[in-house]
Amino acid sequence: LTKKHIFIVSDNIDCEFLMGMDLIKKYEMCINVNDNTVILPNKVVVPFISKPVNIQKRMKIRCNNTVTIPGNTALYLQGKIPIKNAKANFEGLIEPYYKLTNNLGLVVTGSLSYSKLNIVPVHCINPFPWDITVHKNQ
Question: How wide is the angle at C-alpha 64 spanned by C-alphas 59 and 69, nearest 5°?
Answer without folding.
Answer: 110
